[in-house]
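Hi Prof. W.,

I finally got the Beta-lactamase family protein prediction working! I wasn't sure whether to trim anything, so I left the full sequence exactly as given:
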Amino acid sequence: MYCDPRFSRVREVFERNFADGEELGAAFAVYQHGELVVDLWDGVADRHTGRRWERDTPVFAYSCTKAVTATVLHLLAERGLVDVQAPVAEVWPEFAARGKAAVTVEHLLTHQAGLPALEEPVPVEEFEDQPAIAARLAAQEPLWEPGSAHGYHALTYGFLVGEVVRRVTGKSVGELVAAEIAGPLGLEMWVGAPDDVIDRAARLTAGERARPMKVTEADADGGAPAGPAPADDAPAESAPAEAATAGGRPRDVLAEMARASLDPQSLMNRALGNPGIHLLKGGANNPVVLRAGWPAAGLVTTARGLAGFYRSLVAGDVLRPDTLQDAVRPRVDGPDRVLLLDTAFGLGYMRPSLTFLMPSRSAFGHSGAGGSIGLGDPEHGLGVAYVMNRMANAVSGNLRGIRLMEAVYQSL
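And this is what came out:
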């Protein structure tokens, strides 16, 4: 392990998370102006065997994938293969069905397409057939007028953006990540992991279910299913209990989230739970999920690999600086129809909000279920990532990573 003395506070927080019993296994990495200044890992990768977490232990990072997928799309846009402002149907004609002819690629990237949930359960046999799942979405009618509101497309984001990528290149997002980003830059990250990576990946494990508002995927070690996946970006403790409605009357957001989490038919649960990872033995540890490379939740990575991705983005080694500057510019900011809290997005990247509680307004990136976080910050020259395998409840899961991020900024 390595930690530059200037960032000793980060190491103290990392070690405290373990000492307080909040972690099973985890890793944290920081690049500043291209230099690796923090590279920490500790704990157990597999609680059943006692296998230790090593420097090169990868782990499934859920929705941290979305930023990587967005970057692939922007690479194609730079090459003139995709127009973000153009209708999706220009490259995917079947998508125009059921009133979607005017839906743009930007609507997909900003969660405004009105397709946050698949209407019919996706059979397990179809989990690795992304074009088939995309075809289901093409046949659906939007739940709201595209562009009029936004709601977190937890899983459908990837099938939608991924199909646009496939239509213009003939390749999957995972294939392009390997060929255009991870391979050339030497990054330990895969959207669709090969067998040797799956064999040494950390196993996710369920943590405490301390709050009634928690929505769980299932015991990640293979226990009985407990419902749909947790909200990737659920609120930290500082989230307010009340928020103003359009009419100025306060609403109890946490109570609304609690009710939604307990209702199998709520938009939150429908968006987070289909395709149902909990249908597979071992949940997200199942090789089917790790291999499938879902572009919304399919990233297997080390902390150093994910931090290196953001280091390279910030340095202009992946996208042109003007492309990145435009891509991270907030497009939507406010009440989220799926997560219910306020969310903020650029073109595929999260921006600071109640669901991405970062210490810097210039930060961008994406978080993932259980608390994993990838972050870039052009103003401070940062690429940062936190990954772990204990899927604690939404509050403590996020706070572990948030405390580490705060320590980074306090060290600058």
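The first helix runs from residue 8 to 19. Does that look reasonable to you?

Thanks,
D.
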